[in-house]
Amino acid sequence: MGDLLKIKGGKPLQGQIKAAGAKNAMTKLLVASLLSDKKCTFHNVPNIGDVEITVNLCREIGSEVQWDKKNHTLEIVTHELKTSYVPQRYSGSNRIPILMIGALMGRTDEDIIVPTLGGDMLGSRPVDLHINALQKLGAHIEYRDMKKEGAYLAHAHHGLKGAVINLNYPSVGATENTILAAVRAKGTTLIRNAAIEPEIIDLILFLQKLGANIMVDVDRTICIQHAHQFHEVEHTIMTDRNEVASYAMCAISTKGRVFIEGAEHLQMIAFLNKIREIGGGFTVKPNGIEFFHNGLLKGGVHIETDVHPGFMTDWQQPFVVLLTQTSGCSIIHETVYENRFGYAATLKEMGADIELFTQCLGGKTCRFAACNHHHSLVVKGPSPLHAKEIAIPDLRAGFAYVMAALLAPEVSTISNVDFLDRGYEDLVGKLTALGADITRVVQPKKHPEKTKTALHHLLAEKSLTPV
Ligand code: EPZ
């Protein structure tokens, strides 16, 4: 059984915290470092579970890693690859392993084996855009379906060659995977309709230092040229805009005031607009942003989640909790994932007035219009929230529950805390520093037994040893 959080809500959060480095940048940069045999030094590295998992994965692939957690710095160098097999135990943990195909294909002639993907259950989460793009660059990729699990087998025995890739949706992961492969592909690659999230720009900044030539055009086209030479890199990870928004919403909803050191204005534009619309307060300062309750919070907003520069899908869950504290009726239309309102049922049990709809509410139709998924939501407030025993289903829903518990005056017990550890550094320490009444109840750890799977047999067939 995992650790538990006990939260007694009802107190305004007050004080100052420092934002951590971005999970969705750091994990990708570790994978990107595998492109070359040069040393990469990172600063502002977040101490979170997803970085830990990715570091362990890189070590298995052959990287030497020195991680100074106290100073948030990490050095990684991969002189040579020990294996190009992603062990099965990593495949269920997050969305990083599939990026190994793009990063490793230009570095090895061996098959790259990536067992079926994990990550939060937010919908079907296919990888067709990754696979199609990599195939266009010359990769040979096949999926082997086995009884208990499957795996992607990829190689580029004849080398990779630049191509024009049209993504039919600006997927973050598919854009990253294609960029990684294209850095070592001969000639020039154009990704049309690419994702341009700030974390992707951070990846591009890192790759430019590493030796790549990459240009982002105004029309979502990213142009990557074959890199011939690599260099040592020193890079500071961008601030985690999800973490900033999460604590900002806690400050405003609990009627408090919190200064978040390191919060970057540029990454938060869409979020700040919505905070202002509901009457929340913020002041942008030279070294961060202060968020505060500014009198009555009003609803009546319409939010459409979208790719950057739109309102992030990862902000949507805590924002719904914030909207339960506003007066009036608001609409959220989730256009990135078809199934990201699973947490709403628990919020309703805590006292929220929420209704789900399969239609696209708010004017614009999205690609889920005719699919019968509950991807629009109406929330009415203000509603007092009450404590509950809650099991976390995924990272951002998990933070929404923590926030709801901070608003409920009784004690809530939250389980599956591992999900929060994946993306929020020192959550209990930061909330405690802001005056929250929160305790982590540590439970004894279970050690899962290693079992032989169909994948082991496939590896045996290919004379590969799982690490
Ligand atoms: C990244 O996921 C983030 N994860 C997510 O954050 C974030 O919500 C998402 O981007 C959108 O911003 C990481 O960076 C590790 P996508 P990713 O590919 O790359 C569809 C968090 O809480 N799609 O942009 O997996 C897909 O089904 C996490 O930190 C295809 O159809 O997201 C989804 O509907 C959760 N085919 C949409 O695109 C594909 O091949 C967006 O997915 C790939 C994606």
Write the layout of secondary structure elements.
Elements: E1 4-8, E2 14-18, H1 23-33, E3 40-43, H2 49-61, E4 64-68, E5 73-77, H3 88-91, H4 99-104, E6 112-115, H5 128-136, E7 140-145, E8 150-155, E9 164-166, H6 172-183, E10 188-192, H7 198-210, E11 213-216, E12 222-225, E13 233-236, H8 241-253, E14 257-261, H9 269-277, E15 281-285, E16 288-292, E17 302-304, H10 316-323, E18 328-333, H11 344-349, E19 353-357, E20 376-381, E21 389-391, H12 395-407, E22 411-415, H13 418-423, H14 427-433, E23 437-441, H15 454-461
Parallel strand pairs: 2-14, 3-13, 9-10, 17-18, 21-22
Antiparallel strand pairs: 1-22, 1-23, 3-5, 4-5, 6-8, 7-8, 10-12, 11-12, 14-16, 15-16, 18-20, 19-20
Helix pairs in contact: 1-2, 1-7, 5-6, 6-7, 8-10, 8-12, 10-12
The structure holds ligand EPZ.
